[in-house]
What we know:
Blueprint: H1 2-30, H2 32-40, E1 62-68, H3 77-94, E2 98-101, H4 116-133, E3 137-139, H5 154-162, E4 184-189, E5 201-207, H6 227-243, E6 251-254, H7 261-267, H8 294-301, E7 304-309, E8 318-321, E9 324-328, E10 351-360, E11 363-372, E12 377-378
Parallel strand pairs: 1-2, 2-3, 5-6, 6-7, 7-9
Antiparallel strand pairs: 1-10, 4-5, 8-9, 10-11, 11-12
Helix pairs in contact: 1-4, 3-4, 6-8
Amino acid sequence: MILSSIAVAGVVSLLVLHAYWYGDACSALFGGSARKHQRRQLLPGNCPRLPEGPPRFRDDGTFTIVQFTDLHLQCFPPSIMETVTTINSVLNVECPDFVAFTGDVCEVSTRSCTTASNQALMMDIAADPSEYRGIPWAMTYGNWDRKPDAHWTGSELNDFLIGGEYRHNFNRRPQDGVDGDSVFHVLVMSNGTGADPEDTPHAVMYFMDTMANEGCLGTPGTGCLHESQVAWYNTTSAALREKNGGQALPAVALFHIPLPEYITAWNSGAKGDLDEALGTSGQGISCVINSGGFAQAAAANGDVLAMTCGHDHDNDFHGVYEGISMMYGRKGGFGSYGPPDSWGHRPASEGARVIQLRRKEGRIEMESWIRLNDGRKIVQTQAEAALTQSECFHGS
Length: 396
């Protein structure tokens, strides 16, 4: 009886400590301007500050995007600080022109983002390294970043990012009638030199929303890219084509959960890793339940050079579907699972995908690589597994 009472008391104490940790203790450890200043001093930025205003190509014709995905921030000092170090390390090496977050900033399995104050803190920890460097950035939301799992709805998350104090954030609220919370586009402008005035767009980034863990069109599971988003994309793409003299405006599409066409891309000779545990049974790509025909629409429009996502922490490959590069980012956070030990010992295995566009003789060329926490650059030249995928897995 005494041992049983001690055990119960121990469990209760752990629960109380856990709740406290994600309340006052989390704010005390990481909240406030003083703590933010300390994080900024870990790896201070050493890149030339970008000019104010919209994202632009550089004088050398390049535009570099760093994609951070699946940070899964949780309120434990090692996890937070290792993730912040990864973000800062990549930014200091790449000096990008834009930072794109492709979902799952939150790690709700450890109660991260389950209160308004904690979700605000986690989002700010992710965004601040870009914000204080003056790098334009935007975020598409993951399945764990809003209700039913996180504290905020997607609309409330928009209020925080768009209606807050972030000067360099380029999120926009979706148009009326478009399903999703993070559905918008960001134009990449000319640098204003040569024949093109500085208000001339040379590329565009489409941020799409694969939704939260509420199922899709009556089917339980995770991942839904609604037809209304694809209709919005088609309309926007056509309008930009018209303004561009009838030529497709080169684009990159960013979202959280991969499309079924990633299976085709992998099976057709992709480069990189597919190491999700379910890969052994032919389901290592966790596709959306419904994609709205987005990949087919992009192929028909002929404007999307690349699509990139996250969600599957142990995948980082890139392949080709109908002329479109289908890519995963590299998991950047130390919460949740992955990357696997086969990719190297932590913290060296975490990092980001880098996408570089280059204007050359009136065309846009693209190349991509992985930048790791320790500064190494990985150019993927071969598939690291011989698995063949057969069907999507619709889990979380």
